[in-house]
Specification:
Layout lengths: L3 H5 L8 E2 L2 E2 L1 E2 L10 H13 L10 H21 L7 E4 L2 H16 L5 E5 L8 H10 L2 E5 L9 H7 L4 E7 L11 H10 L3 E5 L11 H4 L3 E5 L10 E5 L1 H6 L10 E4 L5 E3 L13 H17 L1 H19 L5 E3 L8 E6 L4 H10 L2 E2 L1 E3 L7 H4 L4 E5 L6 H13 L2 H6 L3
Parallel strand pairs: 3-15, 5-6, 5-7, 7-8, 8-9
Antiparallel strand pairs: 1-2, 4-10, 9-10, 11-12, 13-14, 14-17, 16-17
Helix pairs in contact: 2-10, 3-10, 4-5, 11-14
Keywords: Pyridoxal phosphate, Transferase
Family: Belongs to the class-V pyridoxal-phosphate-dependent aminotransferase family. Csd subfamily.
Catalytic activity: (sulfur carrier)-H + L-cysteine = (sulfur carrier)-SH + L-alanine
Length: 410
């Protein structure tokens, strides 16, 4: 089990107040707080190196090159990827998912092909495929969710046929926190010749993951959801698929040579996807975040989140004013509403009490019809969330009535 009290000392933001209350940060599903080790790594780049990567013939640049490539190798090890060349730097999970949709889908999908996804997906896992489908005449279809809102293997199997070319699903739902049986889905999809694109934004930071054992074709995640900086993400792709894909952008360092006649020879993966100057300080920070997460262990992180989640759910079940939509979530995500109160109004009441939660549709607009609500509130835990944080959250839940929530505005 992790040492939560000592972990909390690493996070400067936890010393802050909000609305004159000690900050309780329960929005880690949107972005995580950053430990001092990651902040120091970013500052270290700016204060001590500052050079570009793969550009200079001097010591500072050589060191940056080494850190740039060592981070790639360590990401590969973190995912248990077979080859560091299967790791592409992007600006985030959204960028990585768009890269697959346009670099792979636009090139290989044909009229009548089927892209399989679900209504539980984040917009970044749906909208790129919608656009690609419109451009090439493919069709987007949606795996039915079960009564809880889970994606089951049986539901995916019911939708599979020889025209399904792409299956694009989240490993863990950012709204409901349910874990999809991705290894089994990959095995099933591959029997039909489809590729599987995994949105790993909510899984990579929280649970042990092995892309070779899962046998996914692509997987995307962001550093900022695992204690790293914003502006840097990762696309994992099987090397033969990356080699077959086209990059979205062309420019410096993505090409081997070109001439005035328009002949262009691109570099091999991953470099053909990394045109221009990358967010080098973000890569330094990502490396520090990897080391930080590994020092604690994702198995320990997940166990801690579930301990807090189960405690919170037991207490929330006692409250008549709170409706929870995912009491059996597989991660530390609790999606709920205060009865008879609009989600944003309730979130403002939580804010007035120093508690940061997210309200709205959580970039998963298609899911709200199933939940039969226009918006929800999401509390999401991480390794720095404490029992005291959860108790503060529960206390505000108990006091969250229509009158109390509206009083904040007057």
């Amino acid at each position: 089990m992790l040492d939560n009290a000592n972990i909390r000392k690493d996070f400067p933001m936890l010393q802050k107040t909000m609305q004159s209350h000690p900050l309780v940060y329960l929005d880690s599903g949107a972005t995580t707080l950053k430990p001092r080790q990651v902040i120091d790594a970013v500052v270290n780049y700016y204060e001590n190196y500052g050079a570009n990567a793969h550009r200079g013939d001097y010591d500072l640049s050589y060191f940056v090159d080494q850190e740039y490539e060592q981070t790639r190798k360590d990401v590969a090890a973190f995912l248990h990827a077979a080859d560091a060349r299967e790791i592409v730097y992007t600006s985030g999970a959204s960028s990585a998912l768009n890269l697959v949709a346009y670099g792979y889908g636009r090139k290989f999908l044909q009229r009548g092909d089927i892209i399989l996804t679900s209504v539980a997906e984040h917009a970044s896992c749906v909208l790129p495929w919608m656009r690609v489908a419109q451009e090439c005449g493919a069709v987007v279809q949606y795996v039915p969710l079960d009564a809880q809102g889970r994606i089951t293997l049986e539901a995916v199997a019911s939708m599979m046929n020889e025209r399904v070319r792409v299956v694009a699903l989240a490993h863990i739902s950012n709204v409901l926190g349910y874990l999809a049986p991705m290894r089994e889905i990959c095995e099933l999809a591959h029997r039909y010749g489809a590729v599987v694109v995994v949105d790993g934004a909510q899984s990579v930071p929280h649970i042990p993951l092995d892309v070779v054992a899962m046998d996914c074709d692509f997987l995307a995640f962001s550093a900022h959801k695992m204690c790293g900086p914003t502006g840097i993400g990762i696309l994992y792709g099987k090397l033969e698929l990356l080699d077959a894909m086209d990059p979205l952008y062309l420019g410096g360092d993505s090409n081997a040579r070109f001439d005035m006649c328009g002949n262009i020879q691109l570099k091999n993966a991953p470099y053909k996807f990394e045109s221009g100057t990358q967010p080098i300080e973000g890569i330094f920070g990502l490396h520090a975040a990897l080391q930080y997460i590994q020092s604690i262990g994702r198995k320990n992180i997940h166990a801690w989140e579930m301990e807090l989640h189960d405690y919170a759910i037991r207490e929330l079940r006692r409250l008549n004013n709170i409706e929870v939509y995912n009491p059996d979530a597989d991660t530390g995500i609790i999606t709920f509403n205060v009865k008879n109160v609009f989600a944003q109004d309730a979130a403002t009441f939580f804010n007035a009490n120093g508690i940061a939660v997210r309200s709205g549709q959580h970039c998963a607009k298609l899911l709200n019809n199933m939940l039969d609500t226009s918006a929800t509130i999401r509390a999401s835990f991480y390794l720095y969330t404490s029992y005291a944080d959860v108790d503060r959250f529960l206390d505000v839940c108990r006091r969250a009535t229509m009158e109390a929530c509206l009083d904040v505005f007057f």
